[in-house]
Amino acid sequence: MLIILLDSLESISTNENGHKLEWLPSRIAQNVKIIVTADCGATDMVKILQHKCEDSMTVIPPFVSLECENVMKVMMNTNKISVNINQWKAIREVFQSCRLPIFINLTLESVKLWRSYDTAEDNHLGRSVEEVIENILIRTEKTHGSVLVTHVLGYLAASSNGLSESELLDILSLDDVALNNIFTSLQPKIRRFPPAILVQILQDIDIYVAEMETDGILVLRWRHSQFNEIARKRYLSNEELKRYLYFNMADYYLGTWGGSTQKPYTDSVVGKERRACRLLPEQPYVFGTCDIDKRYNLRKMTLLPPCLLNSCRHDELRSEIFCNYSFLYNRIKATSLQQLLTDFDVFNDRECNLVSEALRMSGSAILYDMRSLVIELIGRLLPLTEKYKFIEQLVHQCDLDLQRNCPLVPNVQCYSTPGGPLQSEGHTGGTQYCPVDVGVFKSSDGILLTAKPFYSTRVRVWELSRGDPRPDMMMPVGRIHHSRDGNFLVVFQENKQVKIFRSDCGDLIGEIQYGFGVPCHIEVSKKYLAFTIEKGCSPFVIELEDSQIVHKFGYHSNTVAINQNDTFLACNSGKSVILFELPLMQRRCVVETSDVPKDITFISSKLKCFVSTKGKTIESIVFDVVNKRSKVNKILTDLEIRNCVLSNTEAFFLVQSGRCLYLIDSVSDVIVRKLVDLPYGIDVDLATTFTGAGFSADDSKVVAPRANFLAIWDVATGSPLRVLQSSACYIKSVFTSDVVNKAVTILDDGTFQVWNLDNIDTDILHSNNIFPGKIEKISLSTERGLSLAYGNETCEAKIVNFGDGYVKDILQHSDEVERLNNMLLSKDGRFAITCADGTSDFQSSNAFDDHVLWDIDTGIKLLHSSGIRFAMFSDKVNLALFVKCVEYDRKEWIKNIYNVIQIGLPDGQDIHFDFPDNTEFVCSPKIATQNTIDYLVFIGQTNRRTYDHETKQELANWIEIRLFVKNISSRSKEMDRIRIQNLVDGADDRTQFLEIFPTDDEKLLILYGRNIDCFEYNPDKGLVIPEIVMKGAILYDIEREECLRHIPGIFRPDSFVSSLLISKDFSVALDGNMNLFSGESYRNVHFIDTEFSPGNYRLALNGKYIVGLLSSKREIVVVRTTDGKNLGHVYVHGEASCLEVGDDDRTVVVGCEDGRVMILTLILDTSDPVTDIIMKFPSRSGESKILSNWDMRYSLLRSDLHHMRCRTPDTSRLSARSRRRSSSGRRTPDHQTISTIVRLTRRNSQNRSEACCLQ
């Protein structure tokens, strides 16, 4: 048997949320016993214990009077104390009033001070613990002076975990009120509190004060919590004095008057203002300069936040604590992230809560590496800097610290941001074929969201206030329902039994067999469970606590309802609604409705209910129990009524129709508002309807989902506030709560999303994903600050602005293609080329595709052509070049015929010229510029043949590989063919060109290989360059047609030409095997020992660094090329899919699997002006826009529409295309079908309301 005893549970530290007792198990092994004790005054803790072990709670009674007297005698004998008869009578008398053990101890300490001749009047004994403690404090004040004792003990009471003697002495040295009480005549130059006075005061209360270790030092604390409570009540009840004491403590821990800084004070003798040094220590966050002697200032981190809070220095609390990077960083390093988040709980401030939420989101990255804190905060808080001053200061502090921790600076938001409407996302575990029971309710552990798939035994639980997941609970298979107060969970099984569980621990309370029958209407109140079954006598009424059937009705009912107070129950029998009084089930009233009731909703303020009937009418019933009468009022009729919701304050009743929401005043039964349509500009499928509705916690807003949109209306005006888009999936239900201002939407794919309705006044995107899925490729224009990206399942490319990270425009390639496979953005960002899978006769080859040339400013297509193999822009962006395949043969490359299309920009004029016959590309062509003249250069393999003129027989057949150069700035069609033997001395016939690299100084770096006869042809890849070949290079001047420099041996034989990366100044090259080449001849080789993702790494800052994705695709790393050292990394949170570096060699853009785009800037060079570069980012230099309420609402709606237009999922377009195709092949209805439709429509319209007819 193992017995664990935990005493005084109420004194447990708040570190790691220990006071919430989540660590205390509800169920343990049979051979383990846990005994815990707690003070009844700790009500919150007692409530938690009651929920965890209600049956095992025992209240320890106080002693009886005789026991107190016996204990007192034993203690007096032990301490050799004797009293006379009158004094003993006084002692016995006080034990009639209080008999607690602590009271006996305190009485003994008071008796120790008695003299034999003292009377009861001379030494008054308190009759309670509080009175005795008050007497002790009063006695100390009489001895040492009221002012000094008030301030000394006030500081002790103000510190939550005690003060050391040195801290108390230093803080008193800042207290000019206490010092003026001591220095009444002589004013010393160094103004300090005399240590002797403090020692005397502490010596008098020594037996009531204990030394304990806290934060690595010994501190003084009251031995009993009652002392601290009485001291706080006595010395801190005066708000002015309380603020003054905390103000001095805050100054001490801030280090305001540390070192030789002189603090001003008023001389009490002459009344002049003077200054004096207090000789106080500095208060850095870290003591020591190296890791060996480093020690964190835990006292400052622990006590400074409550001191600033209680002294009402809220701005300093934000700037010095919760929005201060040094505090956040060192607090996590010294303790933990959880402790830091606990610190945030003391100050309920919107700005600080956003920082807290950002830290919580960054938990996994911070836990792995503390250096990621700085980039996590910047990447999440950047969108909030324009609105919140202190968050802007925090981001600025992070910017200044970036170069020490991470060389990559976020330009814009790159992670999920707190403060937006969308708070969090998760998965319920359900699928399209497995329904999920979802509940949102308040329990002892907070606001909980539960989700249980019908065929699963696991209930997943989340706490909505913070979005934290809770431990799963195990429940049997079946539907799950929760009580109104959240204390009970009910599960129906096999249509014959119901099981009742506790929600906090999942313990089974009981199970009831009710026979056979499918439950159809279920109502779970605080005390009762009532439900009807489809066929048979019902409803059943079950008491939850006792798990017993209270009543079973002898007739069939369709619906049942219980009022909020659990005093009345209503059910129907046919068209009659019958009211019963609980718990005796006495019939009180019967009323007839117009049709069979389908749903009943009670109002608790008065005995009234709303009834929805099968005839699609809404009626109200007011019961008069005394006179056994009732009044029925018909409110509206609508054939598409789906659901009814009562507001949290019961002021409104919301009726959900198919495409209309009726807002009814619950008192007057008047339709106040008709929320009919979504704002203009939202493209919603007309076949969709509202799938749910609800109210915010304060009933100021109505939320309702339709398709994949969540609309929010203002109840007071009926105008739309926001229209939020969930994702590509439709929303099938929505849940709201009366205690927390959040809405939970459940999507078709089983995903749930939590929306914070307090944040709908901010234009903040929870995540900056621009596609619903993976981003395949990114192209950059740093000159204009734009990037172009496309996803893996879309036929559109989206233009993203570097300034804010938002989508600027969409380039939709064509409705006829399924997806893009490539794209290109011009250097100046004015033009773009999108490429999709080809639809021509050449679609069997992956190389020939459908291309569109775009003017980005106007969104106009300048060219749309299929069968394109290569597309490119010139550096001056004055022309675009397309290589089009006119004829293609998969077997013989010599039969391939190409045509070159040259498009002048921006006028769009085109020039066509033919490609050399019997020639195939060895590498992709390039446009090289020299002295403002553009040249098309490429390496081609040509099949040359000679024939006999008379017999036409082939005389010779050979392969030659040439460098082709054409001046495309002129209209001449001539094309130069250059042999490698003309450029390289000693080159034989087996030396061939391999690849071309245009340089920044308008030259060409041409690679060649040795021992190559010709290149093999692959039908899908074209001509293939050998993987292992001896290489050389030449630097070629196009205009002068000469070789400027020859490098005979370059790179390694196994360096793949296709994977080579060469820096802009050609000082560094990197091959696919991570071999780095540098120096004059590229012969200095060393290996980069970093495992990058293939194809997802680039050279940056002229080859000084490598920026790339690790093989896991979860981190972006920066590696120095000189020694291969990892200089920093950025977490992706998910997986990245692609990476590109801009023309400036600094801008890094990363595409992610979840559709996000991360825009970063590399700042690492020693000459980099860090502050100047960062402050030029639009996200750092933007100014806040102050809008009126109306302008803000209009701006937010307009922003919603823009985001939806820029994030339209591809599934919508595909479904629209499918509908067009299906409608095109649909048979036209005949005359009889049309006549039947008209007749049924007229019949149904007779009972329709005016609003429904308008629809």
UniProtKB/TrEMBL annotation:
The keyword Isomerase does not apply. Residues 127-239 form the NWD1/2-like winged helix-turn-helix domain. Keywords: Repeat, WD repeat. InterPro entries: NACHT-WD_repeat, NWD1/2-like_WH, Quinoprotein_ADH-like_sf, WD40/YVTN_repeat-like_dom_sf, WD40_repeat_dom_sf. Residues 1208-1232 are annotated as: Disordered. It comes from the Eukaryota. This is NWD1/2-like winged helix-turn-helix domain-containing protein. It comes from Pinctada imbricata (Atlantic pearl-oyster).
